[in-house]
Write a structure and sequence with these properties.
heterodimer, A: 144 residues, globular, B: 104 residues, mainly beta
Chain lengths: 144, 104
Amino acid sequence: MAQTRTTASGARDGAEARIGSAARVRGRIQGDGNLVIEGHVEGNVTLRGDLTIAEGATVTSEAVAAHAVVIAGSLEGNVAATGPVRLAASARVRGDLQGSAVVLEDGARFSGKLDSEFDLPPELGGASQGEARGRASDAKSARR
Amino acid sequence: MASTVIGAGITIEGEIATDEDIVIAGTVRGKLSAKESVTIEHGATVEADVTGGSLVVGGALTGNVTAQERVDLQSGARVIGNVKAARVTIADGAQFKGSVDMDV
């Protein structure tokens, strides 16, 4: 449930940066803070904070990079998150998802690859690799 | 609360268009158009041509401005560009370089 809490606080803090439902942005968006997209965005999004793609929003992007990412709208593009990625029931996503955890809710429509960082059990031989990636992600969060 | 807010930490390079109002506290480069009010807050940087219903500038703006109703440059604003609107105010303490066209 940790992901759900991240989501809620992300949406609240993100009120400082919001692209409303009547707005259309074509270009590159980057920033330190959180962002909520309710409208239409075409272009890459790079954030150090959390990104919320609200229900009804459409995002077309080659690359979306952020900390925690919540998608309830429609996204065409790849997501690289340093935190968790959550696809709500209303989400429609075509692209690859990468994050510390990936949650697909019942009803979410998704086509693409999933890459989630977690420790593989030792019997699968992934322990050392899993640890190395865990440290890499700690380093990222320490920088924030 | 404006429907679209570009927060202080956010930079957009490209085109923003909205049928509602917009508040910018961050950085926008490119083109900006809104049907309703555009607010460029103190500390914001906008390098773009701006069209809107009305415009309030407290920050730095480089670009040409066209507003349906009015343009208000507040104290602390720094504007380089041409302004076209029926009503224009420039407050004491605002820096402005460019022309004003009130369509008279």
